[in-house]
Amino acid sequence: MQSHTHYPIIHLNTFGVGGVAQRYVRFDADTEIAGFLRDTPLGDCPYLILGGGSNLLFTGDYPGMLLHPAFKGVTVLGDDGYHVRIRAMAGETWDDLVAFSVENGWGGIENLSLIPGHVGASAVQNIGAYGVEVETVVEQVEAIALDGGETVHLTAGECGFGYRSSHFKSRWAGRFIVTAVVFRLRRTPRYVLDYPGVREGVERRGAVNLKTIRQTIISIRQAKLPDPAETGNAGSFFKNPVVDSGILQTLLNRYPDLPHYPQGEERFKLAAGWLIERCGWKGRHVGRAAVHDRQALVLVNRGGATGREILDLSETIAASVADHFGVRLEREVRVV
């Protein structure tokens, strides 16, 4: 375990915004957490559980503790010939896990290639992309309760997974540190190719298999999304809004080319990036914060931007979309 006071946070978040945390605690093994909680009662001290920092926007110094589960490791728990069960520790880099699974011929997360962040956050956020959400392959989430240090094992059904959400983000926010996730992957994959551009990209690469799907997803993401190592960003800043059929029809009467995707029960998901682009924000900047020139859903740090500048830009964009379309955008990124 490592503990530091007045710790700079610029390298702990993919937006690359500066600031200082009053205290930073890095856990290098899950067994360190219970002892830390015994010796350091959290009490009323503000604290934040930090993963890869790929879904956070710090708006200034953090006046509390950053708790960072950094332990890694992947273990095969079982293989019945149809499914493989693997246990990945919370600090494992998500895309490394995807690469490992694809290399071994285990299907289920190949469409989630190149998503930044760590395994623990994948369950907290219920990450999703290109027609797949991680909840479909999560069997169990292991976590430690911050109140008492008890270890819990939660089934996927108990985690309350929803669109880019889980109980860890809502009703259980701040109550648990996720330590590991158990995934159930397929020996005989079920390919998901219906997302625009995926099938065409795979077919250009020849045979349909896990490797060509992963290559295609990586190519698509690299073509339209900035690399956080080069340009500070947190991927999609906003969630795609979901509206009912009445609102959709009103919008289609005005914008027949509006992309929309059925979500069941007369609900439809809209493309937030399309809405933002139609409002004229794609590629625009306000000071050191900007909207990416290839994907309007991504806000970027042009260099030296503060978290407050990026937040202000996001709020201006959301107000513009609400004024133009009557649709409210909800942030996917957590603002601290």
From TrEMBL:
Domain FAD-binding PCMH-type: 17-188
Catalytic activity: UDP-N-acetyl-alpha-D-muramate + NADP(+) = UDP-N-acetyl-3-O-(1-carboxyvinyl)-alpha-D-glucosamine + NADPH + H(+)
Localization annotation: Cytoplasm
EC number: 1.3.1.98
UniProt keyword annotation of Transferase present: no
Main location: cytoplasm
InterPro entries: FAD-bd_PCMH, FAD-bd_PCMH-like_sf, FAD-bd_PCMH_sub1, FAD-bd_PCMH_sub2, MurB, MurB_C, MurB_C_sf, Oxid_FAD_bind_N
Any GO molecular function: UDP-N-acetylmuramate dehydrogenase activity
GO cellular component terms listed in the entry, alphabetical order: cytosol
One GO-annotated biological process of the protein: peptidoglycan biosynthetic process
Residues of the active site: 164, 236, 332
Record Gene3D superfamilies: 3.30.465.10, UDP-N-acetylenolpyruvoylglucosamine reductase, C-terminal domain, Uridine Diphospho-n-acetylenolpyruvylglucosamine Reductase, domain 2
Pathway: Cell wall biogenesis; peptidoglycan biosynthesis
The protein's required cofactors: FAD
Keywords: Cell cycle, Cell division, Cell shape, Cell wall biogenesis/degradation, Cytoplasm, FAD, Flavoprotein, NADP, Oxidoreductase, Peptidoglycan synthesis
Recorded superkingdom: Bacteria
Family to which the UniProt record says this protein belongs: Belongs to the MurB family.
Function: Cell wall formation.
HAMAP family on file: MurB
Protein name: UDP-N-acetylenolpyruvoylglucosamine reductase
